[in-house]
Amino acid sequence: MARRTRREFLKEAAAVSGAATLATRLDPLEAAALAVPASPWASRIGLELYTVRDLLTTDFEGTLAKVAALGYTEVEPTSYNNMAPREFRALLDRYKLTAPSTHAPARGSGAELEKQLEGFQVIGI
């Protein structure tokens, strides 16, 4: 293991401290955006909406707008905010988001399950 000088250690400690201070002052979604690395497939980076669940409970549409503004193009919802599948899809379309997968399971059987699966198709899952 390479030995560091005291000066190198202090520079690293100051950088970590500054980053931690900055992260506490940012909106949680803005802080998350800083951690997203640039890559050729950046347009396919998605966000599991469970990670912003607290924000969704206070402002569902506003949170989706912020997620889209940060550059995310795909989301994985855990719920649809009590919206019908077509309404939820329209909301996603408004912010140019897609939902190729879901964190919510399909439950039931027969006609109930068919209805849920049709809703998944409408949403794009």
Describe the fold and architecture:
The chain has 125 residues and is mainly alpha-helical. It folds into 2 domains: 1-26; 36-123, no CATH class. It has 6 helices and 2 strands. The protein has helices at 6-25, 28-34, 53-58, 60-69, 85-94, 110-123; strands at 46-48, 74-76. Strands 1-2 form a two-stranded parallel ribbon. The mean pLDDT is 81.
User: What is the ordering of alpha helices and beta strands?
Assistant: HHEHHEHH
Helix content: 40-55%
The total count of strands amounts to 2
Give the CA-CA distance, first to last residue.
48 Å
The whole-number mean of residue pLDDT values reads 81
Briefly note the structural class of the backbone.
Answer: mainly alpha
Helix count, per DSSP? 6
Strand content: under 5%
- Strands of the widest sheet, in order across it, are 1-2
Shape: elongated
Uncertain segments are none
| Largest β sheet strand count, sense and barrel closure | 2 strands, parallel
Number of domains: 2
The radius of gyration computed from the alpha-carbon positions, rounded to a whole number of angstroms, is 20 Å
